Input
Amino acid sequence: MKYSIKSIFNNLINYLILVTIFIGISVFMLIDYDNSYAKTSTLFNQKEIINSIDKLSLDDIELSLIKLSGQGAQLQDNTKKLRNLYEYNFAEKYIIMNSHVYLADLDKLDSLVVAFNKKANDYYSISSINKKENEEKKIELQISKNSLLSHIDLLLLRASAYDKLKFDIHKDISFAEFIIVLLVTFWYRKKLKLVYKDLEYLYNTEQKGYIVSTKEADSIAMRMKRKPISSENPAMIDPLTGINNLRGLMNSYSEKKGMKDNSYTSVTVFEIDNFSKNNKKYPQEFIDGVLKKIAFSLSLNEQATDVIGRTDSEQFTVILSRQNKEESFRDMDIIRKSISELNFNGEVKITISGGYIIKPNNTNLEEAIKQAKAIMLYAQKAGGDRISQIRDVAHSEL
Output
């Protein structure tokens, strides 16, 4: 079974979205825990305030009443704070769904706080007027205090139970997330390794016994393995350099036409600068060595959809297929520079000039090569060791 690289990466995107959702769930649970902690701290703070109110001094009634006013207001503010914090307790609201019970408890807490504040105010207001009545008010205050503290203790117990329940839920969710992420990660690790091995295979399709695992790599490998007839027919091979001759070039181009999807086809004709005029100075063995080295350098830069050939004594034709014109010309110039850097018998420097055109769809290959040759001659006249284009010739004629 062959996998689709497109499907693997589409599913990888979905997997990353799923991981993001898992992280989001954990973040929401952390927010929930933080709010739960704040609620618990607020409830304990309520108990401290209540106990401090109960211990206000009777020696300075005016000061005690001022403190009572501030602490009573803080009790009511804390009750509002508890209500506001619940708005962000997502787990309690949407998973445990305790809104009805919790809000009812807050309503009761609010009423008990109001009653306690009233009893405390009554007690401290009349404490210096009537001792008998003061004792009655103190008893009422203690009863109200005990009711309020009991209810707060109930809220703390329920908060502890809710936190335990939330922790158990979060624990189960976290374990499930970990197992899912672990299994899917290992699965993708295996699939991405297959994709990488397929890419390595495409770099060298001559490996024996390798089984391609992905549909896209299999398709590319089949296209790369399409051997032009020229590789099997000596009549289409230049015997000296081992690359295409003119006939083989034409045939290879015809074979690879279907592989040039949505690409620009460029035709470049190279010729060794002034070599034909000076070749009498060198033995035939040296001349053949130069031609072989140039052919080899061209082969090193050849891609699957490219076609190269020796189309005349000192001329080579290169047909490239690239996604844009700039890339095509840049690759041609890289080839020119690499040949100029070759070493021939120490002091002998060989350069080449090229004529470069983008082949129009309505122009056959023979006509394109003819145009490229004419531009190549212009490049040689302009000093050599360069690649010229149609626009260079046009500028020179202005």
In short: Residues 226-230 have pLDDT under 50 and may be disordered.
